[in-house]
Specification:
The chain has helices at residues 2-26, 111-116, and strands at residues 28-31, 34-36, 40-46, 68-71, 78-84, 90-98, 107-109, 124-134. It is an alpha+beta fold and 142 residues long. The chain folds into two domains: 2-29; 39-134, Barwin-like endoglucanases. Strands 3-7-4-6-5-8 form a six-stranded mixed barrel. A two-stranded antiparallel ribbon has the order 1-2. The N and C termini lie far apart (73 Å).
Length: 142
């Protein structure tokens, strides 16, 4: 009798552990005890040449040919996969700047990123944004 209860308890433990492991696998662990949510869908735009050489919110200088982006909430240095839902092209960019909280866009990309996603001339496109990692921020020398 007690063996059956023990078996059910062990089975429950393993099922719970597997579902938690799947949640962690579907998310991105950036630092101990810090998990970013799963993929998000929204509108992407690009910002560009007039900002060249200026400091971003993270302290890095903006270069239009870099693979960088601005986001409302993701931590600086987060590497995100951006997928253009209109043509299925994909790029990886680093979050180095902030969007205003009032912005209707999900992400602003550098011109190089917009060109690789094939929406540079259109200006806007629908995308999926999925965090995939983190890198150190390289602050510009003053």
């Amino acid at each position: 009798m007690w063996f059956g209860r023990l078996f059910v308890l062990i089975l429950f433990f393993f099922m719970t552990d597997v579902s938690h492991a799947q949640d962690v696998k579907d998310s991105v662990r950036l630092a101990p005890n810090y998990i970013i949510a799963k993929a998000d869908t929204g509108i992407a735009s690009w910002y560009g040449h007039k900002w060249e050489g200026r400091m971003t919110a993270s302290g890095e200088r903006f270069h239009p040919d870099s693979m960088t982006a601005a986001h409302k909430t993701l931590p600086f240095g987060t590497i995100v996969e951006v997928r253009n839902l209109k043509n299925d092209s994909v790029v990886h960019v680093v979050i180095t700047d902030r969007l205003p909280k009032s912005s209707t866009r999900s992400i602003d990309l550098s011109p190089a990123s917009a060109k690789r996603l094939n929406f540079y001339s259109a200006g806007l496109t629908k995308v999926t944004i999925r965090p995939v990692g983190k890198r150190a921020i390289r602050k510009a020398k003053k």
